[in-house]
Fold this sequence. Notes:
By secondary structure, the protein is mainly α.
Amino acid sequence: xxxxxxxxxxxxxxxxxxxxxxxxxxxxxxxxxxxxxxxxxxxxxxxxxxxxxxxxxxxxxxxxxxxxxxxxxxxxxxxxxxxxxxxxxxxxxxxxxxxxxxxxxxxxxxxxxxxxxxxxxxxxxxxxxxxxxxxxxxxxxxxxxxxxxxxxxxxxxxxxxxxxxxxxxxxxxxxxxxxxxxxxxxxxxxxxx
Length: 193
């Protein structure tokens, strides 16, 4: 669940910076303040995931490989966070910054998706009665919703629109596929069991 939250915070942060980057942003100060909070909570969530937390009942990662993978994702998060923080007041936002945000968001999302898949595999081997896949799926669905909002804003800002349309279509397909898997217990193309 913490891993899914980590993914969701990157998508939320991207949505906020892209809302800020819009011409005449409607809620500039609110979005800027929320961005700072979201970035801080996102890093806090990643640190809890990597280090564990007795208070939150999150165990430390069970393998060194997972520690390395999540630490690499945290390095990407820090680059992402710095880019957002350093440019939240840089209005109008230059297209190269919007593109850098998009690339870092995509990199982080892919790193986390792969690493969380590994974590689920390890968790299922260690404790097969724990429904870690269902927890991960719920987090992924939440993340995909935020990712779609980001893709839409990137298209609206004319940041590689064809690329982001493709990513949006892939996200929609994954969302629906996972939805049917949750609903019917298996993944089918037409949504039937």
